[in-house]
Amino acid sequence: MTLLFGFYVLIWPALTLGVLLLICRAVARDRREAKKDHRTLV
Question: Could you tell me the residue ranges of all domains in the chain?
C-alpha cells in the first residue's frame, strides 16, 4: 500500500513537468515563427 501511495504522490510532479515542457515547446515554436514573419508574439 505504501508503494502505491508513493507512486500516486510522485506521478503528479512528473505529469506537471510533462505538461510544462509541452507548453514551453509550443511557445518557443510560436515565437520562432513570429520572429521569422517579423510579427510580435502577442
Answer: 1-42
